[in-house]
Fold these 3 entries.
Entry 1:
Amino acid sequence: MEQTMTGKVYLVGAGPGDSKLITLRAVELLQKADVVLYDRLVSKKIISMIPKTAQKIYVGRAVGDDTTHQNNTNDLMVKFAKSKKNVVRLKGGDPIIFGRGGEEAEFLKENKVKYEIVPGITSGIGSATYAGIPLTHRKHASSVVFVTGHEDPEKKNESVKWKRLAKSVDTIVIMMGLSRLDVICKQLVAGGLDKQTPVAVIQNGTTPKQKMIIGTVSNIAKLVKENKITPPTNIIIGKVVNLSQVIGWRKNA
């Protein structure tokens, strides 16, 4: 017999943008939800999958918003779960890849609320695949790293050691890093990365609005301004970027 879902929070990844990339498990949970707390980057098509009987609450946070915003989301999850509701906490991408899902699970654990974590395709992978960029390749890249370009402003010191990263890994995927792209590229070059290393910036990856520009670490920041690229974006640095010219299958919007 199917287990009744009551008083539980589901931390669910909605995928990278294309609504068809959401998982079957995520759709199943949405259809049974009493309450859905959803983020800014969840697409309208996925929001439309939520039954009319469910309460939809937007809890999205934009860059620059007060960090105490998260406290309200945490309180809502606990409040509804303790009211015996099935709560879906719906996040863009994957819930525990730069999605605060880990922190939210810790909060639920502390408050003795049952939870389940449902993975989603992170935009770092989805955008690359839709752009025809294999993040690993036997001839060009045996390692890949996912890095945030925008760390918590409450941190006293930057955690990402860009100079060390420059020669430690073959492919670097940067999420939420557009506003600091120029600084990041300069630090990577200072750490020994070749100035001609190719860079792709993918805007609105996997959606009908997907747009990609390609440059090098020495000129990509300028190209971003010239092409008026804005968030959300993913940045990919490494030799594998050149493969998009060969196997890319999706045209720019």
Entry 2:
Amino acid sequence: MARHHIVTVFSSLLSAFGVPALAQAHDGSSGSSSIPGFQWTAWNFEPWVLFCLALSAGLFTAGLRRLWPKVGAGRRMLVRKALAYTGGWLFVAMALVSPLDPLSDVLFSAHMVQHEILILLAAPLLVLSRPIAVALWAFPRGWRRFLVRFFSTGWIGRFWRRATAPFAAWAIHGFVIWTWHAPVFFQAALRHEDVHTLQHLSFFVSALVFWWAIIRGGEGARGYGAGVLYVFSTTVHTSLLGALLTFSRQPWYPAYGGSAAAGLSALEDQQLAGLIMWVPAGAIYLLIALGMFAAWLEAVGKSAGGAAVRFRAPLPRG
């Protein structure tokens, strides 16, 4: 893949992330992209996306304001949750509202970046922020109790507990990733907007369920030992899918015809997408796994220290 082809795609991605000045520095243009069908000013203002983002931000902010005077010494933790939520919210907006969205209609590699942002950056940050627990405080006490009871009991509660069991969440997430990359389903998503929306929703929701099960498991950090195995095995199977896309001799999705202006044939565009899934996405999975492993070691060490103190404690006389 020629170097100037990669530079062209890179400059378009910079434009998609709202960094047109840097993009211009790379492609020397006056602000418009050299790729037909894509302009860095083409933001996606689809009403349902904006409504969901605004509703989520409004509930979280209202809950945060009501919680703030009540937590006292816990404000530092609340600040960390607010920062995690803000990061996750911005990554969702970057994936679905920024010019990356229209660019993903032209280049498969941009579409891959969009999916990885939702799965690997937005979802885990939102899970770390515990947005539902904070947003519940936006409601009066009676409503809050009703919502907790409604969603934690009955069939909804049973479904949630079964879906967020670590093995079930791992299997669901893997199934969603592999199924949507089957040519028949991915082609349908490219041709029909409703199917495309369903694809994005299933990627994002399955990622939320996966990271919730791994990070917010019932045992807390002491359960991260098993979580590391789930994250590592996800790294392996998604890297395998990325390698299959990279080394395939045929384009999997004929709806993507490549971009002559970007200097990429359909096959080269697919190879770049495969490399994105294989290398940088795999590296992020491994970094998260290493972080969880360190947290697990710390939790195990604290438990062992507490047990040792209790073992050495003198027995009461008498």
Entry 3:
Amino acid sequence: MPESETAKQSEGFSELSRAVSTFVGEELVINFGPQHPSMHGVLRLIVKSEGEIVSEITPVIGYLHRGMEKIAERLNYHQFMPYTDRIDYLASMNCNFAYAATVEKLAGIEIPKRAEYIRVIMAELNRIASHLVFFGTAGLESGAWTPIVYAFREREYIVDLFDMTCGQRLTYNYFRIGGVADDLPKGFMEKARAFCDYFEPKIKEYNELLSYNEIFIKRTANVAVLPPETAVKYSVTGPNLRASGVKWDLRKNEPYSIYPEIDFDIPVSSGEKGMVGDTWNRYIIRMREMEESVKIIRQCLDKIPEGDYLTKVPRLFKAPPGEVYCRFENPRGELGFYLISDGGKSPYRLKIRTPSFAHLWVLPEISTGGMISDLIVAFGSLDLVVPEIDR
């Protein structure tokens, strides 16, 4: 090779070397969302990485803000019920439940025993339906397609039960202040029992398919660990808190409705695989909770009394002046309503506390310093619903 060509080549290598040395150490900024296939709703994460390592995460929220709390102040107490369906569209029955019970507590309204049982049956069915979506998407986020097909097949049985009860398949608006909109339809009890018999063995099938799949365990165990003290510091609740080893469930710790009459356990993570508080443990807690929900539903179906399903409440009733806070154990954690009444026909102020809002802010804590390839798996394991965050 001529000397002139060798010199040119050497100079080219030097320039390349300088470019590489300039690039090394630079942060790469990546936008996840607000529209992204791996996002659970309209949420944006500004992620900074150094190579494959996540160095900073900044959540950006507000894309789904609807002003729900302000809307509540412009409607009467009954009219706001359909809006509670939209707080967490995967757990509409549970949101209905919490809002109705909050207004009833402030107004001193007693509801029939049969309505209490119906409410708990619906809440636990919706908990299973919500956890099934989690199960299916957990598979997708770790590279397994089959679980979501199974999950939506089983979820359809629950949606059919809701459909025959209230005529809706996603946002139900079934609860009323004073009870529920209608009694259980003919054939519901038999179909609900048949579902429990059908579904219980399926959970074991899911465990064989995904929970104890070696690839899934390697993908999720010891990833994005949330220590119990950090979980408490960030007001994490529900399955995410129990996955960190903290045994706290409002159905047991601050029992409401007819839960004290029901025998069931609160699953808590023991670190069977990986570390307590990691992604796998957040997953397996929800599988255990579905088993407990089946147990609750069976008992409610056996014990439900005959009688009224609704206490008559005037359409334009006025709650007495005062304030009340109620919190309920929803599929994602604690949903709370802080309600102030000035004696008028509408809430003077309604503040909504949702679990997903608190859980979002723990994501930077558990994912910073981890591999960028683990980010979506960790994000999915928190089971966020964006309408809950923005409201």
